[in-house]
TrEMBL record:
The keyword Transmembrane helix does not apply. It comes from Bradyrhizobium macuxiense. Residues 1-33 form the signal peptide. GO terms for molecular function: flavin adenine dinucleotide binding; oxidoreductase activity. The keyword Flavoprotein applies. This is NADH dehydrogenase FAD-containing subunit. Keywords: FAD, Flavoprotein, Signal.
Length: 424
C-alpha cells in the first residue's frame, strides 16, 4: 500500500513564502508558470472544484483552504439525530484530496484582498492567487431572529451545520420525557436544503414513535408551501398520524423571537414552550464571502451563471450554497455540480478559451423512515442571467412501498457516490 505524505503547516508556510516571493515578478502566464487557483471552503462544492481543476489541468497550483481537518456531511445527518446512524459515517478526511496534488491549508481564511489577489490565513500566512473560488457554504444570520445568537445554539440547537450541533439535538431528544413537545422552527427561503426541515420532522417522529410515543412535533414555518410537500404530508398521515403538526406562514407559523432561557418560541399569533427546540435561523453566505466583497445586501453572492464569476469582485468565483443561483437549490448535489462546472470555466479562461454553457444535474433524496424515501431530480441551465429548471422529475405521490424502498436504496448509493467523488 502506498504511503501518502500530507502537507504540514511548515509546508503551507514554505509554499506561501515562495508564492509571495514570486508576487514581485510579472503575472504568470501559462507559458511562464503554472497559474495559482485557491479554493476557500472544503465542502462538497469546494472539494469537487479543487479536484476537477487538477483533473482538467494537472499543471495548476491548486490550494484548498479549509480550517477543519475532517468534513462532516449534512446529507443523512438527520438520521444521526434520529439515532439511525452514527456521526462517524458522516465524516471524511482530506487525505485523498491532498493525494491529488492539491495543497490543503488547514487554516481559516480571514481576509481577501481582491486588488492584490491575496488571502490572509488565521496564522498570518499570505497566499497569492490568479483565480479564487469561494465555496464557504452558509452562516447563521443571528441578527435576523431576536433572542437567538451563538450562545443560544447551546440550548436551542439549529443542527444546520453537521457536527456537534447534530449530536446535541440527538442528546436532547434522548433526554426528553415521553410526552414532550419538540418544536422545529423553519425560516423563510433561501435556506440550505429546503426540504431538510421536513425530513428532520419525519425522522424525529420515527424515533419518538418507537421510544416516546406520547410526544408530539410542532413545525413552525415561515413559508406557506415547500418542496415535495404532498409527499411529506402523505408519509406523515401514513406513518405518523397525529404526531406532526405544521403551522404555515399564513396560519401564524413565522417565528418572531425566542427565549433560550425558558425554551419559549414566539410567533405572530402565539407562544410555544418546547421540551426540545430546534431553531433553524435565517441564513446567509459564509462570512468570508462578505469579507471578500462578493456578497450583496441580501447576504448572498450574485454570480454569472455561465462561469460562476462574482458580479461584484474580479477574478473571484462563487459556488454552492453561498451563490445566488436562481432555480437550482442550495444542496450538496448542486454544489458539487457547480464546483465541476466552475473548474471547467476557470481552465478555459486561463487558456483564453470561451466558456461552455453548463448543464447541471442535481438530486435531492428525502428519507422519512427506514426503507421509505422519495426524491426530486433536475437539470438546470442558465437562462436570463440565472439558473432555471430545464427538466425536473419528482417521485409520484401514490407510489407503492417497494418504490419508496428502491429510492431509499438509491439515496444510500447517491451518498456513497457524491462523498467518494469529493473525498474518496
Amino acid at each position: 500500500m502506498a504511503v501518502t505524505r500530507h502537507p504540514t503547516r511548515r509546508d503551507v508556510v514554505r509554499g506561501a513564502a515562495a508564492v509571495a516571493a514570486a508576487a514581485g515578478l510579472a503575472r504568470p502566464s501559462l507559458a511562464q508558470a503554472a497559474p495559482r487557483v485557491a479554493v476557500i471552503g472544503g465542502g462538497f462544492g469546494g472539494a469537487a472544484c479543487a479536484r476537477a481543476l487538477r483533473r482538467l489541468n494537472a499543471n495548476l497550483q491548486v490550494t484548498l483552504i479549509e480550517p477543519n481537518k475532517t468534513f462532516t456531511a449534512c446529507p443523512f445527518s438527520n438520521e444521526v439525530i434520529a439515532g439511525l446512524r452514527e456521526i462517524s459515517a458522516q465524516q471524511f478526511s482530506y487525505d485523498r484530496v491532498a493525494a491529488d496534488g492539491i495543497t490543503v491549508a488547514a487554516q481559516a481564511a480571514i481576509k481577501v484582498d481582491a486588488q492584490a489577489r491575496s488571502i490572509t490565513l488565521a496564522d498570518g500566512t499570505t497566499l497569492s492567487y490568479d483565480r479564487l473560488v469561494l465555496a464557504p457554504g452558509i452562516d447563521m444570520h443571528f441578527d435576523a431572529l431576536p433572542g437567538y445568537d451563538e450562545a443560544a445554539t447551546e440550548k436551542m440547537p439549529h443542527a444546520w451545520k453537521a457536527g456537534e450541533q447534530t449530536l446535541l439535538l440527538r442528546r436532547q431528544l434522548e433526554a426528553m420525557d415521553d410526552g414532550g413537545l419538540v418544536v422545529i422552527a423553519v425560516p423563510a427561503a433561501p435556506l440550505r436544503c429546503p426540504p431538510a426541515p421536513y425530513e428532520r420532522a419525519s425522522l424525529i417522529a420515527h424515533y419518538l414513535k418507537a421510544n416516546k410515543p406520547k410526544s408530539k412535533i410542532l413545525v413552525l414555518d415561515a413559508k406557506d408551501n415547500y418542496s415535495q410537500q404532498k409527499l411529506f404530508e402523505k408519509a406523515w398521515a401514513e406513518l405518523y398520524p397525529g404526531m406532526i403538526e405544521r403551522i404555515a406562514l399564513s396560519q401564524g407559523g413565522r417565528v418572531t423571537s425566542v427565549n433560550p432561557t425558558t425554551n419559549e418560541i414566539v410567533t405572530d399569533f402565539g407562544n410555544y414552550t418546547a421540551a426540545v427546540a430546534n431553531v433553524i435561523p435565517p441564513q446567509r453566505a459564509g462570512r468570508i464571502a462578505e469579507i471578500a466583497g462578493a456578497a450583496d445586501h441580501t447576504g448572498w453572492c450574485p454570480i454569472d451563471p455561465v462561469t460562476f464569476a462574482s458580479k461584484l469582485v474580479p477574478n473571484i468565483h462563487v459556488i454552492g450554497d453561498a451563490a445566488i443561483a436562481g432555480g437550482i437549490p442550495k444542496s450538496a448535489s448542486a454544489a458539487a455540480a457547480q464546483g465541476r462546472a466552475c473548474a471547467a470555466a476557470i481552465v478555459n479562461a486561463l487558456a483564453d478559451k470561451a466558456p461552455e454553457t453548463p448543464r447541471l444535474d442535481g438530486a435531492c433524496y428525502n428519507t422519512v423512515a427506514p426503507g421509505y424515501a422519495f426524491s426530486l431530480k433536475g437539470i438546470y441551465q442558465p437562462k436570463e442571467d440565472q439558473y432555471a429548471e430545464a427538466e425536473v422529475t419528482t417521485s409520484p405521490v401514490d407510489a407503492p412501498r417497494e418504490v419508496r424502498q428502491r429510492e431509499a436504496d438509491e439515496a444510500v448509493e447517491w451518498f456513497r457516490t457524491i462523498t467518494g467523488d469529493a473525498f474518496g
